[in-house]
Amino acid sequence: MPEMPEVQGLVDYLDGRLPGLTVSRATVANIAALKTYDPPLDALVGTTVMSVSRHGKFIDIEAAADATAPLHLVFHLAKAGWLRWYDHLPTTIIRPGKTPIALRIAFSDGSGFDLTEAGTKKSLAVYAAREPADVPGIARLGPDPLDPAFDREAFAALLSGRRTQIKGVLRDQSIIAGIGNAYSDEILHAARMSPYALAANLSDEDIETLFAAMQQTLAEAIAEASGKPPTDLKDAKRRGMRVHGRRGGACPVCGDEVRSVFFADNSLEYCPTCQTGGKLLADRRLSRLLK
Question: Could you tell me which residue ranges the Formamidopyrimidine-DNA glycosylase catalytic domain spans (predicted)?
Fold first, then answer.
């Protein structure tokens, strides 16, 4: 699943190319991906891109026919979605149901992108909106962990009194925006903290350590993603992971074996020596992470 660093990488890439270009075509290949009808997606045709930004894991392309009435093309790549960029957009006809393409956007210079989604479980979401906050997922977002206003005290306030495992807190978009399964594993490993630790039980020192690990892990991942084209971002993410997705490998800190806990259609990875005092975590508690 693309998370904040990869989404920011896509935003930086698009923001370096799209402003000043006019949307010439918007084609929906998977109608289930389009979550709005007012304004219609076709209203974007003829508008000029002003900027590209990020809200949590949502990408927001702002475009307008004039400065008084901007529209926003907002999309969330979900678990298996991705953006495929073309300097010269293919002229092939998109056949609904016969392609992984969910949406194609063309621009006035011949460039464009496809939003694609692999697998049978389709959850990629596309919105046309007058304001970003009109998108329900954006309206529910918590603070961005790299926002300068989000300091250690604000982080501590979010954790206070929460009888929830810290892994679940980090993944909950209504609490903190942009962190998902992969980077929560990486943050907790950097903080040497068990994913099962209860947020309410963390000491001041724990909170300080976790906040620093969150800031550093995300900042480093964003720096690694910066400047890379979409085709390279997934590989850059995988190469940068220290424990996530590395079950059976050696922890880069202590050399212990990286372990996994499986739940639903996902898993978490951790180092027993670094994070749990050598204890192996039990699956039976993991359902609480999804609450």
Answer: 2-89
The CATH number of whichever domain residue 211 belongs to comes to 1.10.8.50
User: How many CB atoms neighbour CB 67 within 10 A?
Assistant: 7
How many Å apart are CA 124 and CA 33, to the nearest integer? Answer: 6
d(CA 211, CA 65) in angstroms, rounded, equals 42
Asked if the structure places residue 144 within a domain, the reply is no
**pLDDT tens by residue, 121-136:** 889 999 999 999 999 9
Q: Are residue 65 and residue 180 in the same domain, yes or no?
A: no
Task: Find out whether 248 and 166 touch, Cβ atoms under 8 Å.
Answer: no
Closest listed residue to residue 155, CA positions, set 177, 139, 186, 182 = 177
The CB density around residue 38, as the number of other CB atoms within 10 Å, is 9
Same domain, 157 and 273: yes
Residues 6+ apart with CB under 8 A from 144: 56, 150, 177, 178
Q: Are residues 162 and 122 in the same domain?
A: no
From 139, 163, 188, the end of a domain falls on: 139
For position 120, what pLDDT does the model report? 76
Which domain does 105 fall in, by range?
4-139
Helix (H, G, I), strand (E, B) or coil at 152: helix
Question: Contact, 166 vs 193, CB < 8 A?
Answer: yes
Percentage of the chain modeled with pLDDT above 90 = 85
> What pLDDT is stored for residue 285 in this prediction?
47
Taking the alpha carbons at both ends of the chain, their separation in whole angstroms is 19
State residue 93's pLDDT score.
83
